[in-house]
Amino acid sequence: MLVEPFAVAFAAADLADLRARIGRTRWPAPAAGAAWEQGADAGYLRYVLDRWARLDWRARERELNAHPQFVACVDGVPIHFVHQRAARGRGGVPLLLTHGWPSSYAELLPLVPLLTDPAAHGIDGPAFDVVIPSLPGYCFSGRPGVCTMRDTARLWHALMAGLGYRRYGAGGGDIGSGVSTYLALDQPDAVLGLHLSNLELDPYLGPGAAPLTPAESAFQAAVAEWSEREGAYHAVASTRPQTLAYGLHDSPLALAAWLVDPWWAWSAGEPPLDLLLTTLTLYWVTGTVAPSLRDFRDNADLGSVGRTPVPTGFAVFGHGRRDCVPPPREWVERLYDVRRWTVMPRGGHFAAAEEPALLAADIAAFFSAL
Description:
By secondary structure, this protein is an alpha/beta fold. It has 15 helices and 9 strands. It has a 9-stranded mixed β-sheet, with helices on both faces. Helix 9 crosses helix 10 and helix 9 (about 240-250) runs antiparallel to helix 12 (about 290-300).
């Protein structure tokens, strides 16, 4: 596997074009009613676009490039990834972390110093060699014509093998949770443990499955209610991703509105603005919002999955404003061999960005116990 060093370096003309487009924004009339009731709030979006136009991207590039980054050709697909080895010259536990949507690899970067050198940050547990790829079609990674989470898992296993890791831990949230699960299902001898911060896949509930508990029935009802109230983004992206992509690819306002709405709704507090602006810029300049949306269509028919035998830690970050209600433990145990279950006191959907210290400590404690 050919691995080449990589650094983020956006052309000045692309950044100038972005600022010019923001300056020409054509604003619609604000929605009637309470803020955020009908989607992204106009006042907050004006604040985001004003800060986006004044973003010092070169400073942000230096922060991103402080982490060793590479591009490898994996089964014919160029895959971008961060690969930072454990500090202090020790061999670290290999750990593959995968982000979700509407996010990027940058969301997971706050975990890197905490996991590569946990002792320096007061965290008990092993040090890790951390690998953080960009999902296929996101930012600097290529994407095959159709790429399910299971297809991504195959690419990730080939990537880790190419880096010399025969066994490794895996984890993530959102789509990253699904990809990590398929890794464990398809490569149980390679994945030494899973650590997940939310649930992406559904368990098998057909003939022979145990009856639902009251908590599981309540969870199903809550998910259905949430999907009816909050799931329009998923319905559109899973059926008409290309139609949606035209506006998001051409308009900074449209892109910001589509990404800011879930970041606001699923976070426990105000989303980290620096990370939000970094994510918007990565999507915009690389022109990858269209392939990222295809994740919804490509994964629409995956269905339920069987139980994975790989030991699993689950960190429950259930404090998002309007995020989906977290599942009860018995529901998760239909899918996983749960060895660690931590209900976090704070934090929402974007756990690595919102509460990196809590998440890193739980990851370290889980793998330390294996």
